[in-house]
């Protein structure tokens, strides 16, 4: 496999599983993955939060781990990457306020490069204006954002993912097996056992 590079956009209180699991799984699959956060540099960390489904009206939230960034946001160029991953948690609600984040998302969309977003990650896609007329899954609380941005919200079981063209989206971390498998397929990877 020729080296493929994936850019992961994160921020403080990104969902723990949604950053840790894809980061490690994509590295295991042979990809170079650069995790960046606006206003932070390689070697710095973001704090994560753990969202759990415990029978309440919405998820519960607990403090997670520190996740080390391995690239510097101000130094990365979207054109150097083959795909974009946007984990959920609380980070998407504020990283979408960063102009460069939105420009990066638009680049990946304009170039028809794979974009994978999970849980609240589609909030970044809505702010970038890339969902008009397109189908997108996400955490149910993000459905109004997706629809207000002109997209069609796809209501899935929490362990399922949805693909439309270059977009691979899912409602939450229980979908990791399906979401990551679909992302790998969109990336053109083939895993044989």
TrEMBL record:
PROSITE patterns in UniProt: PEPTIDASE_C56_PFPI
A GO biological-process term: proteolysis
Residues annotated as signal peptide: none
CDD domains, alphabetized: GATase1_PfpI_1
Entry superkingdom: Bacteria
GO molecular function, one term: peptidase activity
Domain DJ-1/PfpI: 4-185
Keywords: Hydrolase, Protease
Pfam families named among the record's database cross-references: DJ-1_PfpI (PF01965)
Family: Belongs to the peptidase C56 family.
Protein name: Protease
Species annotation: Acetivibrio saccincola
